[in-house]
Amino acid sequence: MLRIMAAASLTIALAGCGATSPSIDSTALATAPDNKPAIAQLELAAGSLGSEQNPVRARMPQGQRAYLDRLRCASGDAPGYRRIGSGGRSPHGGIVDMYSVTCEGSSTVVIWMDMYHEHVEEEPVDGFTIIPSSSV
Predict the structure, then answer these.
(1) What's the domain range around 126?
(2) Exposed/middle/buried for 33, CB within 10 Å: 0-12, 13-18, 19+?
(3) Residues 111 and 102 sit within 8 Å (Cβ to Cβ)
(4) CA 88 from chain center: how many Å?
(5) 73 in a domain, yes or no?
(6) Residue 18 is assigned to a structural domain of this protein
(7) What's the pLDDT tens digit per position in 93-123?
(8) Which residue, 102, 54, 96, 63, is CA-closest to 82?
């Protein structure tokens, strides 16, 4: 009886976790043959800040979010963003995360970020402006 109650509690807990976790839009993300996500969104130019070859460096997830919170769209509004996955090794040595970043009425851009740095990035990725970190 105790095992049944424990199993039921675990099932309920896991169901609750699934209900609150963010979902990944299957039309935006698919698995490519090399097991990396194939993204049906705009990619930044190779080598530009925020691209796979030059990810934004930040300190841990809170540093990634702080950077994204400081970005501004052409309208001056903050973009919406969500983490869409991990993209493997960074050229800087860490592991990269990919964020889907969208401005109202605009295309979605994928920004690659490496969170294993003390660095606070002050430059915006192409297509955005940024609030200086000293102003927040």
Answers:
(1) 25-135
(2) exposed
(3) no
(4) 13
(5) yes
(6) no
(7) 888 999 999 999 888 999 999 999 988 999 9
(8) 102
SS3 content of the chain, % helix, strand, coil (to 5): 25, 30, 45
Q: Which two tokens stand for residue 48?
A: 């530009």
Q: Which two tokens stand for residue 89?
A: 């090794």
Give me the pLDDT at residue 79, please. 97
Question: What is the pTM (predicted TM-score) of this model?
Answer: 0.69
Domain count, the chain: 1
Which amino acid, one-letter code, is at 28? A
How many other C-beta atoms are found inside a 10 Å radius of the C-beta of residue 134?
7
Hunting for tokens 């990944």 — which residue is that?
24
Are the beta carbons of 64 and 119 closer than 8 angstroms?
Answer: no
In 18-29, which positions are buried (b, 16+ CB within 10 angstroms) versus exposed (e)?
eeeeeeeeeebb
Decide if 30 is inside a domain.
yes
